[in-house]
Amino acid sequence: MRIIYVLFLSICLAAITFVVLNDKFAPPLEPTVTQFLETIKAGEVSSALLYFGDISCSCPPKEGYGAYLKYESGLEPNLAFLVGHNFQVGPLAKTELHEKFRYTFPWEKPTSFSVSVPLLFEAARYSPIFLPLSLAFGRNLELAEFQKFIDNPNLDCSRGLTLRLRPSLEPGLIKLPQAQGDGSPATAEANLYITPSDPGQVLTPGGDRIPHDELAKRLPKLRQVVLHLKLERRGSLTPWLISHFHLSDAIVQIEGLAPVRLRDEQIHN
Description:
By secondary structure, this protein is α+β, with helices and mostly antiparallel strands. Helix content is 25%, strand content 20%. Strand 8 (221-234) and strand 9 form a beta hairpin.
């Protein structure tokens, strides 16, 4: 009986020691976030995809996690505007989330954190252009409607903000899928704001097109946004996975004018 008791205590002690050592030598969270953002900046999409996942439902988007990194998916929020571009990363802030996950053994205890990272954009390096809603989905705009957006960048801001952030207005950025539906006007209208496309045209009262390079000079540029990530893992020695993300506190600026803070409700998932 004494042998069984000693054996039981030894197993308990070994389990506790394993958990303590796991916590001590577990890979820290901060390098995971830094490495993820570096792969995004480098345009290494296949490597960036390895950072996505979750420990509960295993619920990637229908097109896979790659849908978060390309305009063509139409998913909002989206990180396509960051891929392959030189943005700056501010100081990271993290908060542990005390969620209830099921687990069997102590060394499998799940952990999750909410992480916030400011992303900064300099005109000399990279500052995404913020397009009016219609223009970002391929529709033409009258000059008067375009000017309304210039006067108030928050106009229609509740729809597709990150899909409207573009590195340039040059055609070819977005690979359009084949048109779907029955070809009726009703179907075309219903699909209008589902998938973004290359920018439409801005037309003067006389019907002339304003060149895209001139439009780019007039449009607001993103100066700052906060990226919020939820990271989780099962057990201390397993890698951190990004299960959710959203953006907030976006600030845009038109050259020569004061910065404008965009409303937050349009960039939460």
